[in-house]
Structures are given as C-alpha cells and as structure tokens.
Design goal:
six-stranded parallel beta sheet; alpha/beta; two-stranded antiparallel sheet
C-alpha cells in the first residue's frame, strides 16, 4: 500500500490496514488496486432521490449525498476506475413484481414496506420502464457502463453484472448508491460470495435511516468488505497512479465536507 490506509471495524473503530504481514499485506494491496477496481453505483434514480415532492420510494439520506457521489466518482474516473450505473428496471405494468402471475406475486420488500410506510400509490410504478422514475440523478460520462435489468435487491439478480465485471477483468467493487441497508448490503453479500473484494465508502452510500445505515456498515465490515472514507480511499488510488490528490480532499475523512449541499 502507498498510504496509511484506514478502514473501520464495526463502523466505529479506525484501523490501519496491516502492512508487511505475510499473507495479509499482499491481499489488501490487491484489494486496493485501482486497475482491478470498478465502482458499482446502485439505484440512484429519480424514484429514490429525485427533487419531486413525492417519490415512488424516497431515500433522503441518499439524496443529500448526490454531490458526494458525483465528486467521488469523478475522481475515480481520473485514475481510470470505471463507473457502472445499476438501475432497478421493471417492465411497465408490473409483470416483474407487482402484478406477477405467480402465487406469491410481489417481491418481499414490496409486501413488507406496507407494514412500515404510509400508503403511497406511486410505489406501484417504482422503477417501471417508460416513467420518469428511472432518470439517473448522478452525473453520467461517456464511457460509463449501465446494467438495467436489476429487479430485486441485489445488483447481481437477475443481471449480467458478473459477466460484465469478468470481461472488464475486475476483482474489486466499490459499492455506492441506495440503500445501504437494502440493495447495497444485498449486493455486497452477492459480490463477496462470488469472491469479488468489496469496498464501501461510508460517506457516499445512503441508508434508509442513520440507524439502519450503521447496522449495515457494521455487517459489511465484519463479513463482506472494507468500510472506508472516500477521501482516504481516493488518496490510496491517486498514490498508486503517482498523481496528486486534489488539495481539498487532503486531511479530511468525509467527502461531503467539500461538496455543495443539495436542496
């Protein structure tokens, strides 16, 4: 490693990754190789984080981190890390979920959310193709990649994400997006079970609540991957490329400190 790379244990205790320890040093060094890394941004579309007064399934904690996503992913592009935009994309009319002809139609999350939220008729068309709810709210750049067949919580189901990652020769995935405690966590489990190294910048992802977000990050740090701060991670990537980290990112732990606030 080129920097004193820190991660978080149980999303609380800071830990400098071991260096010079046989077996561990090489493994973590490869884990942080930007040439083998892709950013997997999950469901940052209008239905979750749009500016509308009413949304299909609102996630305010992720909305306020749109600028953090844009800045983090822009810096990743500078060091050659590709961005993959994942979209929960269902056929118009709901055959994939709401109006499936199966005996147990409707995904588990859709059934359970009726127990937690006030009734919202807009949720019926959450992520339906042909609606404005699929508009991406983060910056897109020529050369970015897209996976548009996600229909459940994990970005791997039922999509070709794994196929794409293998063809890009990717071994490490940085998971950003919404929600930390649902789609991001589910994707982290599937990525780890497929032997991809998982990294989650805790100041970029956004959960349903702070409590749920923290619980998810604790699980990730224990079982699935490295929970880090975005500026710390970028410092390592830039050092690997012999590039200077932008000055405003030096000496901070939260990328939101240098991002403009969103309404």
């Amino acid at each position: 490693m080129k920097t004193s790379m820190q991660c978080y244990i149980a999303n609380r205790e800071e830990l400098v990754l071991p260096s010079g320890v046989p077996g561990y040093d090489d493994a973590f060094d490869r884990w942080l190789d930007p040439d083998k890394t892709a950013v997997v941004e999950i469901d940052m579309h209008r239905g979750h984080v749009g500016p509308d007064d009413r949304l299909t399934l609102s996630c305010p904690r992720a909305r306020v981190r749109i600028p953090a996503h844009n800045r983090f992913q822009a810096e990743c592009r500078k060091v050659g890390i590709p961005i993959i935009h994942i979209q929960h994309w269902q056929r118009y009319g709901g055959i994939d979920d709401l109006n499936s002809k199966k005996h147990n139609r409707q995904a588990n999350w859709r059934m359970l959310y009726h127990l937690h939220f006030e009734e919202n008729e807009l949720m019926d068309e959450h992520s339906w193709e042909g609606t404005k709810w699929l508009d991406l709210m983060t910056e897109e750049v020529e050369g970015d990649y897209y996976v548009r067949t996600k229909k459940r919580l994990s970005a791997f189901y039922p999509t070709d994400l794994e196929f794409l990652l293998h063809n890009m020769d990717i071994e490490n995935v940085v998971i950003t997006g919404v929600m930390t405690d649902a789609c991001c966590l589910s994707t982290a489990f599937d990525a780890a079970n497929r032997d991809f190294r998982v990294i989650m910048p805790r100041d970029v992802v956004g959960g349903y609540t702070e409590e749920f977000e923290n619980a998810a990050l604790q699980i990730v740090s224990m079982h699935l991957g490295l929970v880090v701060d975005a500026p710390t991670l970028l410092a390592e990537y830039f050092a690997r490329k012999d590039m200077s980290l932008p000055g405003d990112l030096s000496g901070i732990n939260d990328i939101n400190e240098v991002c403009e606030a969103i309404d």
